[in-house]
């Protein structure tokens, strides 16, 4: 599911002439915000439900360089979910469909009054249930990676 379209802003380009590594994380953060809007946790929804999402963990892989003003598309795959967590996988591509980066994330639903993890509000849970979810064993090839030096 395509979740975000943007372009590489001039301020995102570093001394190497391509998008700085931190800016890839920014784009994936924008994708999380777009996902939140999609499931009813936009600004009004966060206030109404007194609920938000926190990022617990992220694993970002850089595959290709992105350059100033280059169009970017981010697609979302929902890998798993439970009553208060989302395990998501984002793929960033250029206009030609080349994979630029991936970000695998664990998101936690949090009650804003208690600042504690809590189950998704019913309307949000319903919107999440409507998201396309990858079947077990049919995850994207780059999902579920670990960091380590292979010997």
UniProtKB/TrEMBL annotation:
This is Thioesterase. The lineage of its organism: Bacteria, Pseudomonadati, Pseudomonadota, Gammaproteobacteria, Oceanospirillales.
